[in-house]
Amino acid sequence: MAFSEGNLADHLGGLSYSEEQIELMDVATSFCRDKSPIDKVRKLIADERGYDPAVWQEIVDLGWLGIAVPEAQGGVGLSMAEVAPIAEQMGRRLLATPFATCTIAAQALLAAGDEAQCGEWLPRIVAGEVATLALTEPHGDWNLDHVEATAKASGDGYVLSGTKQFVTYAKDAALVIASVTVEGAVRLVLIERSAIPDGALRREIIIDETKRSYELTLDGITVPASALLDAGRSGTALGQIELASALLQAAEMCGGTQSAIDYTIEYLKTRKQFGKLIGEYQALKHPITNAYVGYEKARSHMLSAAHNFGQQGVGEIAVRMAKASADKAYSFAADRAVQFHGGFGFTHDCDAGLYRRSAIWHASQYGDAAWHRAKLADLLF
Amino acid sequence: MASRPTAAELAEYEAQADAWFRENTPKDPGFMLPLTFMEVSTDQQFEFLCAWQRKVYEAGYLGASWPVEYGGGGLHPDFQRIATKVMKKYDGPIMLNAIGIGWAGPLIMDIGSEEEKKKYIKGMLNAEDIWCQGFSEPENGSDLGNAQLKAVRDGDEYVLNGSKIWTSLGDRAKYMILLARTSNDGPNKYAGLSFFLSPMHAPGIETRRIKKLTGEYGFVQCFFTDARISAECLMGNEGDGWQIAMKTLEYERGAKVNLAGGYFLKELDAMGVVELARQSQRGGKPLLDDPVMKDRMVDFMMDIQALNLNNQRRRMGPLVQDRPMGLALMNKLARTEMIRELTEFSIGFQGTRGGYYVDDPCAVDNGYWHRSYLNSFSATIGGGTSEIQRNIIAEHVLGLPKGR
Ligand SMILES: Cc1cc2nc3c(=O)[nH]c(=O)nc-3n(C[C@H](O)[C@H](O)[C@H](O)COP(=O)(O)OP(=O)(O)OC[C@H]3O[C@@H](n4cnc5c(N)ncnc54)[C@H](O)[C@@H]3O)c2cc1C
Ligand SMILES: Cc1cc2nc3c(=O)[nH]c(=O)nc-3n(C[C@H](O)[C@H](O)[C@H](O)COP(=O)(O)OP(=O)(O)OC[C@H]3O[C@@H](n4cnc5c(N)ncnc54)[C@H](O)[C@@H]3O)c2cc1C
């Protein structure tokens, strides 16, 4: 690839937006602000389910689960580009729901499901039944094709074994899409909730207390042969899942970064020490400005990733740049947010901690900045 | 303004411009050309760049959208944008008269009188009248509002006393945009400032060249000793100086679009850095095989791309709703700091050869990277330092309190 500073954008994809994207952005901005004030976020931390079913129903009624699902399957027929601004506002207000995981599960079905599988599940997901993904394992590898769980033929179906971690919202899920190997090849398999015994799910204690995640023991679970997704397309589906997840995470992280900065600025404008507002001290003023510059760069990358999503080559570069820069921006902004709140920053009551934990969570799932940069190095040089 | 052109008209114009720049963009003249308007050191460089700007202007590709009666081309701004794009494509030399066409010109077009437009615009465009900027003083740099050069009204004239420093092109210029103090009585330091379009060739105005970090020349110190200039040089009214100076800084810092066209700084050849890293060796292996080097390089590519995207996004209203001025005001800071870091990084690739400098026969790319790094400070300091840029963003975009 040959590019210079000026034409880098031509090679790496530029920026544009759709009317629908802006409309959704506007609706999501007020919706998430109204439905997820910070005291509600904190109340839900103590709640077992972790989200408000009434708000979830409103999200379903708004049609947001079907944005990137074709009309034929009950969706709206737009694309991931239009989902991103919603995720951004959810991240901004720390509005935790199964929205992202349901959206990604639908993309997985579209990538590797057959007509019957898509026909059954996509309309149900659009209608608000929770679907989630079981991809990662105790080895902790971000490479999604590193799969040790297995499915072995047995009678008419398959018997599964292995352990899956970070299966978000599994407890509420009607459908879990898991990665397993069948005779050495990675496959995706649909597991209905009814097939999962009660003891197979363990609620994990995760760094981001606003979210819910479970470990899933597959041992002994059986599925019919019709539950396996297409063998030929499972590999590409994993790639799609990774990129779609990274895009939505980048969007959520941009929203979170914005809030971490806004929250800190408020403090810097009101807290006084040595007779001055602490926002006058450049030791705070300049780093928070750097955080803001980092945020705007990350947001440009994210919007470009949304716009170019699905474009051969360019799309993957844009998404990885988006996730890598969102991680860098969010981590820095949230880290400084804690520090600049002084003793209060060290308390559980300070929202800076919510953002710091959220950033760590996002970095831990589907690759952190360094991992995506390593992937980018292979794509760029 | 001229009416909006059709796509066909633009395409035809682009084809013409393309043919012209392909034919006329100068090849390597055999001596080092300045990368920015702040680096014009020798007469040879100066004459070459004047001739190039004049040629571009005469072909109609500079000032294309300024009114015909002042020397412009009278076309819609879209045409000039295309001409500048094509100029970039053929990687032609910079437009020398940056302070003229880049900041003084737009200012005069914006708030200048009819006489000022008639008198100054054409000479800027054809590079006959070079302009410089007299803002900074030895004792007052970042604190521009405290400028002390005195301008005292005496009949039809002002009498100037004091000194300006770091004046780029000051030894070549015919005119200066000058910020001077006409009063100390105002409610604050800003109120006593006035703005002049001052001649440089007048008794009592002297310049002394200053050698730069790079070893070249490019800026001067100006001494004003009872220098008399016509009272007509005053722009606006006495006391308007600060407001007008801030307007010019918006052009200078790229917060506003460059309307006259052309470019005053060569873009850094970012891919050249990648090439350099590819050619460089460590332990007998290409440097880019080293994961640490590769990682940093990716980080730079991401940064460059982010700034490109920022520049597209800042014109897209719905994508900058929350802080509409943010992207425009951070542009200078983010770009100049990135270039400083990237060029510094590039020197490290060169191993022992990082010890050479410009003009040594063994210097990598004739010292281009060293020169670019040392010159990068011109942009992190000039036009308002990075620290001042951070203050501006913090106060004007984020709403943080001003330091006392
Ligand atoms: C774990 C922990 C244990 C503690 N234990 C004790 C204890 O046992 N006894 C006790 O008395 N205290 C204790 N403290 C309090 C601690 O000493 C204070 O939190 C600390 O001095 C900061 O004061 P503050 O929290 O009021 O923050 P602030 O002073 O309000 O500071 C807020 C932010 O502004 C910055 N800031 C403030 N002034 C300036 C300035 N002039 N220039 C630049 N930046 C500035 C700070 O660095 C910080 O980032 C403890 C704190 C913690 C976190
Ligand atoms: C290559 C080049 C070309 C130039 N061309 C021109 C020209 O054509 N015309 C012209 O008028 N000027 C020109 N300048 C001058 C330039 O605008 C000044 O150098 C700049 O504004 C800084 O002023 P100073 O040099 O007096 O530094 P100072 O203001 O003394 O700054 C010294 C250091 O202190 C920091 N500092 C100062 N105030 C603050 C603050 N409030 N908060 C935090 N940090 C602060 C600065 O960031 C800097 O790091 C040029 C400069 C360069 C390098």
Per-chain topology:
The complex is a heterodimer of chains A (381) and B (404).
Chain A: H1 8-12, H2 19-35, H3 38-45, H4 53-61, H5 80-92, H6 99-112, H7 115-126, E1 130-134, E2 150-154, E3 157-161, E4 163-168, E5 173-182, E6 185-192, E7 201-203, E8 213-217, E9 222-224, H8 234-270, E10 272-273, E11 276-277, H9 282-308, H10 314-340, H11 342-345, H12 351-364, H13 369-380
Parallel strand pairs in A: 1-5
Antiparallel strand pairs in A: 2-3, 3-9, 4-8, 5-6, 7-8, 10-11
Helix pairs in contact in A: 2-5, 5-8, 5-9, 6-7, 6-8, 8-9, 8-10, 8-12, 9-10, 10-12, 10-13
Chain B: H1 7-24, H2 43-58, H3 77-89, H4 98-111, H5 114-125, E1 131-134, E2 150-154, E3 157-168, E4 175-181, E5 193-199, E6 205-210, E7 219-230, E8 234-235, H6 241-252, H7 270-279, E9 281-282, E10 285-286, H8 291-313, H9 326-348, H10 368-381, H11 386-397
Parallel strand pairs in B: 1-4
Antiparallel strand pairs in B: 2-3, 3-7, 4-5, 5-8, 6-7, 9-10
Helix pairs in contact in B: 1-3, 4-5, 4-6, 8-9, 9-10, 9-11
Residues 38, 132-136, 141-142, 166-168, 219, 378, 381-385, 387-388, 391 of chain B line the site of one flavin-adenine dinucleotide (FAD).
What does this structure look like?
The complex is a heterodimer of chains A (381) and B (404). Chain A is of the alpha+beta class and 381 residues long. Chain A folds into 3 domains: 9-130, Acyl-CoA dehydrogenase/oxidase, N-terminal domain (Butyryl-Coa Dehydrogenase, subunit A, domain 1); 133-232, Butyryl-CoA Dehydrogenase, subunit A, domain 2; 235-380, Butyryl-CoA Dehydrogenase, subunit A, domain 3. Chain A contains 13 helices and 11 strands. A 3-stranded mixed beta sheet of chain A has the order 1-5-6. In chain A, helix 6 packs antiparallel against helix 8 (234-270). The longest helix of chain A is centred in the middle third of the chain and has 37 residues, at 234-270. Chain A starts with 7 loop residues before the first helix and ends with a helix. The model of chain A is unreliable at 1-5 (pLDDT under 50). With 404 residues, chain B is an alpha+beta fold. Chain B has 3 domains: 7-129, Butyryl-Coa Dehydrogenase, subunit A, domain 1 (Orthogonal Bundle), CATH 1.10.540; 132-252, Butyryl-CoA Dehydrogenase, subunit A, domain 2; 270-397, Butyryl-CoA Dehydrogenase, subunit A, domain 3, CATH 1.20.140. Helix content of chain B is 41%, strand content 15%. In chain B, the strands form 3 sheets. A 4-stranded mixed beta sheet of chain B has the order 1-4-5-8. In chain B, strands 2-3-7-6 form a 4-stranded antiparallel beta sheet, with no helix packed on it. A two-stranded antiparallel ribbon of chain B has the order 9-10. In chain B, helix 4 crosses helix 6 (241-252) and helix 9 packs antiparallel against helix 11 (386-397). The interface between A and B is large, with 48 and 50 residues. One flavin-adenine dinucleotide binds at residues 38, 132-136, 141-142, 166-168, 219, 378, 381-385, 387-388, 391 of chain B. The site of one flavin-adenine dinucleotide (FAD) has 12 residues of chain A, from helix 9, helix 10 and helix 11.
